[in-house]
Amino acid sequence: MNIRLQHFLFSFIFLFLLFPNCFAQRYAIDTLQYQGTDQKVVNLVILGDGYTQAQLLDFEEDAKRFTDYFFQTEPFRQYSNYFNVFAIKTPSLECGAVHACTASDCVHGNTDLSQYPTRFNKFTKKYPVPIASPNTIFGSSFDNGGLHRLVVPQKYQVIEQVLKEHIPNYTQVVILVNSPFYGGSGGKYATATVNFMSNDIAVHEIGHSFSILADEYWAGNQYAIEGPNRSQESDPTKVPWKHWVGTQGVGVYSYGGSGSKSTWFRPHEFCKMQYLVAPFCAVCQEVFVETIHHKTNPIVATFPVASKSVDAGSMSVFSLKLLKPSPNTLDVKWYLNNHLIDQNIDSIYLNIGMLELGVNQLKAIVKDTTSLVRNDSHQQHVYETVWSINNKMDRALAMPLSNWGDTLETCYNGGQVLSVKNASRGLTYNWYSEHQLTVPFATGSNVSVNDINKSTVYFVESVWKDKKSTKNKVLVKVFDKVEKPKGAKVRFDKKLNKIRVTLNEKIDDRYNYLWCNENGTSLYEWDEFNGEYVSPKGNNNELLLNKSNSNSKIYVVKVNKTTTCRSEKLEILISKF
């Protein structure tokens, strides 16, 4: 090796040891759920430990399985729209987890792994874990804190580096350890093996990591601290969960009958923070919802951007992009200059005449009204967006426009819907049948008029406080009346063994006919060849009926093919043949 190459390699090794971050490796990321932004949402990151390069497909399956299970669990199901989920494919040199079997509760011995499927394993915590010390990326190991099941990643610096290089604004991390034996831990990172109970373990551990929930089983004095679901207070009117006591099984329950655990209390007897197979109790669900709101903002975007002043002459729609629970429990209120103009919609239009001279304030206030939360502190979780609208002159109310222009059409004696295009929230729309009238026949941005038998002009105006716009007009044009058929001839066709009904009208290609029985069920011709009822062919001014239709009434309606307007029904009595 020449001296120059030797010097280069020495320099490279020196720099790597001194500045290892300069040579950080990039890993592939699977985006399992994305809300269109990584801001103002919970960024849930899944890492894999003990998966070799050849096992990364297993990691993909495990991460997807966990994600599906996570969003089937309440309250995460209702708040799934508040989460992004990313899975970083972090390979290890060797598979598995470190296991020294040093904990007092470790079951010594070996388990024949060949008798079980490679994935979807059936291992429970009673099976012995083989002694092993694989080289894995995060160094996850059993036997921590004197507990065999306590599986903890040891290489925290590596975890932090991977997160910094890939998802620096992570909110919650879940580490899936590629070991089939039961184990996991909470702490900074929720950790779980891929044991058959791994999904429940991971969700339970998220209770610790994400919302600082306590175990509702007794884990030891070292974990005995006050929390939202654990307290030394026994008075039901004073415990942290007092607002839930007496509902959904919530009460005050002792951890044990004697010793130090007897002085501590929990809110429920069947909660996932005690039993993996249980759902989260109401108290824990409330804490999760509170945590989600502390870490997110349901208003993820606004249009136009709220931080920029809006010129009145160029304003259009104002809208919110919201993270909505399912079912949606968000209450949205819109205020113009502190005047409530509408609620529970995501976007609004403003009529320029509603603005005052100078700077106007349009505010949207969003609050989650979920029944999962009873704590009064939730009232603090109110989110708002404010737009400043600069109006340099006094302006008249803009005249309302019809959705369909100044002319609509309808059938004789038919109805029509009169609607305002881009209706401004907070305005009143008055409708008149004559221009000079002062009392409207209807009010609203969408009104119905019925039984119109002649072309009629309607007028509409906008009203805001003491201001009225110029009236706009809408013509409703009435099509020509479709006269009902004049009559029908009913006879028995011996050749076909059918009843033949023929209308007393000349065939006219402008019209078609609809036939029905007394209860309104449509009547069709019976096609003997194909053995089915078919629509009458041609202008269908004639109908063939089976003899079973004798002694009944049928009806026919004449239809204009172009306008689809209909005549009144003609009743036809079918005599007995």
Automatic annotation (TrEMBL):
Q: List the Pfam families.
A: Ig_7, Peptidase_M64
What are the residue boundaries of the Ig-like domain, all occurrences included? 409-477
Full protein name:
M64 family metallopeptidase
Organism of origin: Sphingobacterium anhuiense
Q: What is the lineage of its organism?
A: Bacteria, Pseudomonadati, Bacteroidota, Sphingobacteriia, Sphingobacteriales
